[in-house]
Design a protein that fits this description.
nine-stranded antiparallel beta sheet, globular, Glutathione S-transferase Yfyf (Class Pi), Chain A, domain 2, Beta-galactosidase, Chain A, domain 5, single chain
């Protein structure tokens, strides 16, 4: 538990930099800035269905995500029917709003966060949220999508119960609220430290609130949720002095500041005794009151830190030292324009809306996780200072190694170095000496399987992105892949597979380890370490041990060599042999050695037949009912979850790329749109969006680390990468239309391209990839074995 000191030195620190900031709101000239690609972003895409994105304000890779929360499931209530849809705190189907909290996940299948909810109101100063059916029973307000607006870095809504126009915007570590009151003699602002997005499981274990002066508060809370003992500190400043304030401890007492009067009844601009304006406990709320709220808009600035109150205040003063809301909004928009300029896509408005919104979602995380002074909370619970790099958090690696991290190597390679360095310091600080698995805000959640940080490191290194400690990376990779206590690695090495009687999800773990081992082999091969390369190439073939040739499916195997007697290739059981999938999907999870898998099937024909069956055989929902994540179905194919993301591209490896072209169009047309429900499943911190970006351009990284990209079929007329080396790699089309979905021919820099893949070197050398499209498949293009994407067994 952290309790602020009451010394004069502490008070001076809190007040440092405030002079000159507490000024009147200036008049703002409303000259609209020249808009870049951010004008095509619709933050509401993905907020419906099971997309799990939020519509609120965030800057690229920002530490703060300031967004509305429309529902919180309370403790003691069965959360299953509705909570999954509200992992981001907001769902487009909802009609009432609780307020605006400052931290959110984008697109995850589980949740946490929702730190520091702020809600303005008039009339009764409610401290309880109320209910959906009776929002007037609490601080909740009705709202309408007709009176709701969002753009990158900005969100606004009319709170209908209060006639308040609410607006928010952000910088990296700070946010600004602007509330315009239309009625009421007194306005109220509630700051609720008990609120969480998953209230039923995210418990506040400590919180406190301190009044520094009549415009400044310092707040803090620690929660046990997905992350345990997670601290967040806030510095809050108002654009005008509050007229009254209440510090409310719902577990104990309610303390009223009474306008911050001293014992003689005189009002002070600075609290005479800050220790008297402090409360702490597990259920803290603060209510600030403002007379004549309609006189001018009320602004609230919030700085955030995981380290201390002082750092939160420093972050705030460094990033928003003024009261110019429009400046923050404009700078946020400019930051997005800069990031979204990494790819120039030309197409129809609907295509641009989908494409640039996908980029917008892909460039929100991993997020910066350090204060302006470089301090951050490490996974060891200690405070560290980033030296020579920017620390990042939110590594949803089971999802994002597939397409998001490869995309970042082209659109933001400088950040990739810092992200890998952040993974390496995570390894150093980890009591278990492991690279991150699924981590956020200085905490490891141990969610999902594999050790996919090695894929991100290897892919970057092989692409020449090497601004990290390579020797430390070698150490961390070997320690993680040989860890004696993580997810049955000893048994995996002993048996050549994870036995199903040793660990659940054994088949999926075996297959994902085998892929990760391939990337490790590639990494050490590039380093000239032949022994380690050969060992991990050997391990990368362990996928063969869980392929039952009698049924041509991946299948559970126990430590005695017995196949799973209850095997059903369609069934996806919770903690069964597969992770959020079934054998139909996971049988194709050999992205690094597709030719080897084709050989196990007995050749191209049975392999293609099984691929076709995957897309055409109806999946019984009864057999996947234990997994909410299996969504976006086309037959057995589940685009709403990551194990299926590479599968449509596998026809290339069997010499029938025209079928890949057909499937990509089918997926695009049926499972994505520019509407709120336009994502087929949760976006998983940008992975699904990254899949869309690559697939729209016409190629995809089936196996990150092999430096090739399987060609699918372009879905947009043209696009170009602006590369860090100053070159441009462009994709153009001829004849592309709704009917013309098949590739007739391809040229690379004017020369015929006969192969169904491009390489990393092709991209980095710059130039133009040109597709000629038609309404009938060219079944001869890229059919020969020499024209297919490479596999790890070939040439070895």
């Amino acid at each position: 538990m952290s309790h602020p000191t009451t010394t004069g030195k502490w008070l001076k620190l809190c007040l440092a930099g405030l002079l000159g900031s507490l000024i009147h709101l200036p008049a703002i000239a409303s000259t609209p800035p020249k808009l870049g690609n951010s004008q095509f972003v619709d933050p509401f895409i993905g907020t419906g269905g099971d997309g799990h994105t939020f519509p609120g304000a965030v800057v690229p890779f920002g530490m703060m995500q300031l967004s509305p929360d429309t529902e919180a499931v309370s403790r003691g209530v069965d959360p299953q029917p509705e909570i999954y849809k509200r992992c981001a705190g907001y769902h487009h189907d909802d009609t009432t709003m609780l307020g605006f909290s400052h931290t959110h996940f984008s697109g995850t299948g589980h949740s946490d966060l929702g730190d520091l909810l702020i809600q303005p109101m008039v009339g009764v100063a409610h401290t309880k949220p109320g209910t959906v059916n009776s929002p007037e029973s609490g601080y909740r307000s009705r709202f309408s999508h007709d009176r709701e607006w969002a753009e990158p870095g900005y969100y606004a809504v009319d709170l209908l119960d209060y006639d308040i126009h609410a607006e928010v915007s952000t910088t990296v570590r700070a946010g600004i609220h602007r509330y315009t009151f239309s009625r009421g003699n007194t306005g109220h602002v509630l700051m609720d430290l008990t609120h969480s997005i998953y209230n039923f499981s995210n418990k506040v274990i400590w919180s406190d609130a301190r009044v520094v002066d009549e415009q400044t508060l310092l707040l803090h809370r620690r929660t046990n949720g997905w992350a345990k003992n997670r601290p967040t500190y806030f510095a809050v400043q108002f654009s005008r002095p509050f007229d009254d304030i209440e510090l409310i401890n719902e577990d104990n007492a309610r303390y009223r500041c009474n306008g911050c009067l001293d014992k003689g009844g005189n009002k002070h601009s600075t609290i005479v005794n800050p220790a008297e304006q402090y409360t702490a406990g597990k259920a803290i709320k603060v209510m600030a009151h403002f007379n004549k709220p309609t006189d001018k808009p009320l602004l609230i600035k919030v700085g955030m830190s995981a380290v201390s109150h002082a750092n939160a205040l420093e972050n705030l003063q460094a990033e928003i030292p003024h009261w110019n809301f429009e400046q923050v909004r404009s700078e946020a928009r400019s930051a997005w324009d800069h990031e979204l300029a990494g790819i120039d896509m030309q197409g129809e408005l609907k295509e641009k809306r989908q494409f640039y919104t996908a980029m917008y979602h892909a460039l929100q995380a991993p997020s910066i996780y350090q204060d302006v002074n470089g301090q951050y909370l490490g996974v060891d619970g200690a405070i560290h200072k980033a030296e020579g790099f920017t620390n990042y958090t939110l590594f949803s690696l089971w999802d994002t190694y597939r397409a998001l991290h490869p995309l970042l190597t082209y659109v933001d390679p400088a950040r990739v170095n810092d992200m890998i360095t952040s993974m390496l310091v995570h390894y150093q600080q980890s009591p278990n000496k492991l690279l991150p698995i699924w981590s956020f805000q200085g905490h490891e959640t141990w969610t999902m399987i594999g050790y996919h940080a090695v894929s991100v490191i290897a892919d970057a290194y092989l692409k020449g992105i090497r601004g990290f400690d390579v020797e430390l990376a070698k150490e961390a990779i070997l320690a993680t892949a040989n860890h004696p206590r993580f997810d049955a690695i000893p048994e995996y090495k002993q048996f050549g597979y994870v036995p199903m009687d040793v660990l659940p999800e054994s088949v999926s773990i075996t297959l994902e380890y085998a892929y990760d081992d391939f990337t490790i082999a590639r990494f050490f091969e590039a380093l000239g370490d032949k022994d380690n390369a050969e060992e991990f190439y050997r391990r990368s073939q362990f996928y063969r041990n869980v392929f039952d040739k009698r049924v041509n499916f991946m299948r559970g195997l126990d430590s005695k060599g017995n196949w799973d007697p209850d095997f059903d290739p369609e069934e996806a059981k919770y903690m069964g042999p597969f992770t959020e999938g079934n054998s139909y999907q996971y049988t194709f999870y050999v992205p690094h050695d597709v030719q080897g898998l084709i050989d196990l099937f007995g050749g191209d024909k049975p392999f293609v037949e099984r691929l076709d069956t995957l897309f055409t055989k109806e999946l019984s929902l009864e057999k996947i009912k234990e997994h909410e994540d299996i969504a976006g179905l086309i037959g057995q194919y589940a685009h709403g979850n990551e194990p299926s993301h590479h599968i449509a591209y596998l026809y290339n490896y069997a010499g029938e790329p025209w079928r890949t072209q057909q499937r990509i169009r089918q997926i695009m047309d049926t499972l994505s749109s520019d509407k709120p429900d336009g994502l087929a499943g949760n976006d998983d911190v940008g992975q699904m969006s990254a899949w869309y970006v690559f697939s729209a351009i016409g190629f995809y990284p089936v196996a990150p680390g092999d430096l090739t990209y399987a060609i699918g079929a372009p879905q947009v007329p043209q696009a170009s990468f602006r590369l860090a080396n100053g070159k441009t790699f462009a994709m153009t089309t001829e004849g592309l239309s709704q009917d013309n979905l098949y590739i007739q021919s391809v040229t690379l820099n004017g020369k015929a391209l006969k192969r169904s893949y491009v390489t990393h070197d092709d991209i980095m050398q710059g130039g133009k990839l040109h597709f000629v499209m038609g309404n009938k498949p060219n079944k001869a293009w890229a059919k020969a074995k020499s024209q297919r994407p490479p596999s790890s067994t070939e040439g070895r």
